[in-house]
Amino acid sequence: MHRTRGSGCAYDHDCLFGSDKNCEELNVFVKTTLHQDTRDALSDDGLDAAVCFVCPPFSGRKQEKNDDAGNVIFAGARLPLFYTIRNEVFFIRGDRKSIGYKRSDLNFVFSNHTIPVREKTSFYMLTDGFADQLGGKPRHSFGRKRFIRLLKTFGKQPFEKQRDVLLQAFKDYKGEGERQDDVTVVGFGDAPCHNE
Fold this sequence. Notes:
2 domains; three-stranded antiparallel β-sheet; alpha+beta
């Protein structure tokens, strides 16, 4: 998730009860806290967000059986989720609605996407600043396809190596140009955490 510059708002919730509900609650929180739920609102701030809820597998010991056990549940407000299973890359587009802005529907229902976690599955969320960065010759955005090619090539590497490769690819593509937006990539899953 990334925040509105200078908003100073922190979002705290006692219980994660579904990625879609977190986006919905955050939308209501931002709109009402910034008083953007009225026509005469003075500000028009908001954010895009991606939320993943990782449901641990059912162990059968002192926990209730959960239909979502062993799954990752994703909801996105204009941000995607990429995931790899072995060497294949999948892409889930977030809903085409932002959170908190005056034009954001206060009662919008975000979509949950459930992904069964299998062996050798890794997940990636990124802000639009990564894919939208201009660079190359001629100058075009970095784009989703280029990101997917990197995941196909380096997705089996330890996360530390993936971080280094993504950062270098971003810097090389950007060249001498300005960074246009905030850039965040979060990866988690089955890739090793360090060189073995």
